[in-house]
Amino acid sequence: MDSCKTKSTLKHHRKNYFVVVDKEMINDTRLSWKAKGLMLYLLGQSDGWQFYESEITTHSKDGRDSTSNGLNELEEYGYLRRTPIRNEKGQFIGKRWDIYETPITNQ
Question: Is 106 inside any structural domain?
């Protein structure tokens, strides 16, 4: 199943509701400006926001590949964890996206 066609749910792991950003992410030189912008966009969404991965691309002039690369960067450095969700039959039905203000290391 195409991951862009399955619904995802966002779960924040942050200190408060406002888009207050830990400077660690801002100063993380491993991240591109694209990844930092995507992180801000994701932090700005409500907890439990349901969306399609392809929908994120429609909120910016960046294309699908650019958006995908930025998300992969966030995942590589521990700011994003995308976990498959399966139904009771074991079928893939979506993903849970966990967003972390500071990177996690036990991915």
Answer: no
